[in-house]
Specification:
Layout: E1 4-10, H1 22-25, H2 30-43, E2 46-52, H3 56-68, E3 73-77, H4 86-95, E4 99-103, E5 125-128, H5 133-149
Parallel strand pairs: 1-2, 1-3, 3-4, 4-5
Helix pairs in contact: 2-5, 3-4
The structure holds 1,3,4-trihydroxy-5-OXO-cyclohexanecarboxylic acid.
Length: 150
């Protein structure tokens, strides 16, 4: 059995990675990202389970399910819901599962409406701007946090 269980959670339109605005999000597909995070997870003794949805409520449900499953940590790219979703913020605040927010792009350097994250204040921190690599950095940060605190 692995030391930690980590939920890799992805929000709307990320199923289109690889073809979606590659000049912003890169050419790596979501399946490739998931595979890379799982490989790194094995090295760091983390079991990685993954879920993607375009539906806000399904993401809320998955977060509350993670609480019942005693998931140790979450890596979360809420995508556009980052900037709009009180429901996702409340879900993270409710379950108190340590969460690292991830973005492929540097949201601080893009449109003004992307500068604000509603989910970041209830997360441990954010890694943004490194493309697919952001997810791997997030897993390293989360695993280090769990090693210190669990
Ligand atoms: C994103 C940034 C968001 O602003 C955008 O809505 C996304 C992707 C990113 O990973 O860079 O869908 O979360």
């Amino acid at each position: 059995m692995k030391k930690f269980t980590v939920l890799l959670l992805n929000g709307p339109n990320l199923q289109l990675l690889g073809t979606r605005e590659p000049e912003i999000y890169g050419s790596t597909t979501l399946a490739d990202i998931v595979a890379r995070v799982k490989t790194l997870g094995s090295e760091l003794d983390c079991e990685v389970i993954d879920y993607q949805s375009n539906v806000e409520g399904f993401l809320v449900d998955r977060i509350s399910q993670a609480y019942s499953e005693k998931v140790d940590g979450i890596i979360f790219n809420p995508a556009a819901y980052t900037h709009t979703s009180v429901a996702l913020r409340d879900a993270l605040a409710a379950v108190k599962i340590p969460t690292v927010e991830v973005h492929l792009s540097n949201i601080a350097g893009r449109d003004e409406f992307r500068h604000k994250s509603l989910t970041l204040p209830v997360s441990l921190g954010v890694i943004a701007g490194f493309g697919a690599e952001s997810y791997l950095l997030a897993l390293r940060a989360l695993a280090a946090h769990l090693d210190k605190t669990k």
